[in-house]
Amino acid sequence: MGGFNMKVCALAACLLLAGQVSSYSMEDLCAQWSGSGYVGNPADCTGWGYCQGQKLVSWNTCKNGLVFNAQTSTCGFANSTICTTSAVATCAAAKSPMYVAVPDDCNKYGYCFGNGTIDYGSCGTGGVYAAHSNACIWGPACPQDSICRFMKNDIFVGDPNNCGSYLLCNNGYGTPGSCPTNTFYSAGSGNCQSTNPCTGGSGSSGSNTGSPYTVGQQVSGVCKDGKAIGSATTFYVSDTKTCYGYFYCTSTTEDGIWNSCLFGTHFDPTPQQCVSPAAYACSLNRCGNVASPFMAVFNTNCTEYEICSSSATNYCPSSNKYYDEVHNICTTKPLNYTICEAST
Ligand SMILES: *[C@@H]1O[C@H](CO)[C@@H](O)[C@H](O)[C@H]1NC(C)=O
Ligand SMILES: *[C@@H]1O[C@H](CO)[C@@H](O)[C@H](O)[C@H]1NC(C)=O
Ligand SMILES: *[C@@H]1O[C@H](CO)[C@@H](O)[C@H](O)[C@H]1NC(C)=O
Ligand SMILES: *[C@@H]1O[C@H](CO)[C@@H](O)[C@H](O)[C@H]1NC(C)=O
Q1: Of these four, 22, 88, 149, 164, which has the most CB atoms within 10 Å of its CB?
Q2: Cα 164 to chain centroid, rounded
């Protein structure tokens, strides 16, 4: 009967009303969460994904037309569960009158008549609809536009718009928070830490700020396992800490002198040369010494890539599952770059 949805609303499910169309993917949601569990699919309110270790490890849809409730991680009847991605779908199933947010336009709100139809109202110039208070408020930020809309209640997640800060998710809304002075929120551990995970304090920002050596630095013991090629009398060895650093050695007993490959290249210890990163499967931080926003992840056949700005990893869509780091696209065919070959 008609009272059902109103009662659900009173129980705060109204807070889950649809907001903006999200530009987030499930991979983006997982990348911000240190925990394991379900997230909603921002592109389909019947869909869900499962996150583990900041990665999307599986996904599916609720059966029999049920709608996924991301806050409770359950599939619910369409007539009592808000479809976060479509106000029309919510109203089509709603059995009682209610207001809903309109996913692609926060300036508008929807009104479900309770007979399957929807009508729209406008919050006027500069106004946005705030579903949690069922009111038009002054914009421009849309209150519904948070990754928490697709995430469980009562968890902390990284703030995708403010790396190093976090959101506390509650009923689909994210309350922003910051770590104590001089500490940063790590989406990977779910804790505040002193190294900044956003600027590559750990050496993974695509710059070389994490380099353990300086150019010209002399280090003892590093040349002992090296060997000159052919008739050469000097040789080069990897610094074993970065993909792009090497030591110049004059003998196995002398100190090595550190240097970096030219920007955009990595050191391949076999020919003792700086080469295209794709031409050498470096198992260390591949984002070092390159300007690329993404780099293929070692030993994944190029099915996985790292987002250099955050160190999070991600997958290409299953239809184009291989990441081609040279052309920065997801492609259908397996790639023959060295980095994409299976290592044994
Ligand atoms: C909601 O839909 C389910 C399944 O179709 C049905 O069993 C239930 O009675 C409906 N609830 C209301 C309030 O209409
Ligand atoms: C639904 O209800 C509204 C308001 O009573 C009415 O204007 C509209 O025609 C109805 N639509 C249907 C399909 O019954
Ligand atoms: C990469 O491909 C090889 C050969 O096709 C396969 O044996 C291996 O399991 C794949 N590895 C990954 C991580 O997909
Ligand atoms: C890789 O594929 C390209 C295009 O298909 C081809 O031109 C190239 O020779 C291949 N390289 C190797 C090492 O097989």
Answers
A1: 149
A2: 14
Residue range 73-89: mean pLDDT, rounded:
93
Sign of CA dihedral 72, 22, 61, 37: negative
- Model confidence at 19: pLDDT above 70: no
CA 154 to chain centre: 20
| DSSP reduced 3-state for 26 | helix
Residue 146: φ, ψ to 5°: -140, 145
Find the ligand nearest to 6 CA. 1
3-state secondary structure of 314: strand
Please report the pLDDT score of residue 7 as a whole number.
34
Task: Provide Rg for the chain, Cα atoms.
Answer: 26
Half-sphere exposure of 320 (CA within 13 A, CB side): 7
Q: Is the CB of 298 under 6 A from ligand 3?
A: no
Q: How far apart, in whole angstroms, are the C-alpha atoms of residue 73 and residue 39?
A: 7
Compute the distance between CA of residue 135 and CA of residue 143 in angstroms, rounded to an integer: 11
State both tokens at 265. 């290249």
Nearest CA to ligand 3 atom 6: 342
Question: Distance from the CA of 290 to the center of ligand 4, in angstroms?
Answer: 23
**Nearest to residue 5, comparing CAs of 74, 99, 142?**
99
**Å from CA of 117 to ligand 2 middle:** 7
Q: What is the DSSP string of 186-217?
A: ETTTTEEESS-TTTTTTS-SSSSTT-SS-TT-
| Contact yes or no for 85/21 (Cβ under 8 A) | yes
Task: Pick from 57, 299, 301, 313 the residue to mutate for probing ligand 3's pocket: most ligand atoms within 8 Å of its CB.
Answer: 301
Domain ranges across the chain: 11-140, 149-193, 218-272
Residue type, 182: N
pTM: 0.52
Query: Which ligand gives the minimal distance to the CA of 94?
Result: 1
Q: For 321-344, what is each residue's pLDDT tens digit?
A: 999 888 878 889 999 999 998 654
